[in-house]
Structure prediction request, 79 residues.
Amino acid sequence: MPITDVFIQPDIRRNRITVTVHAASRGTVTAAIEGYGGPVSSETNTPFTVEFPEHRTWRPGAGHFHRLNVSLSSGTGSD
Prediction:
């Protein structure tokens, strides 16, 4: 059951991101921002929020990127 798309919408003022993970069939999604707190779980194709209070925004001369680790599991295994 592969992940077909991941949509991430930042909300800088509220210190969070909204994540939607699309897959061909239903499953449980787990997402965590590397280095920031624990994982959040939801169902595929359903938007969910990941709190991100200590983010740093990107700007010229001070670029910084954050990594979102996403996994998908079903009753038969995980991607």
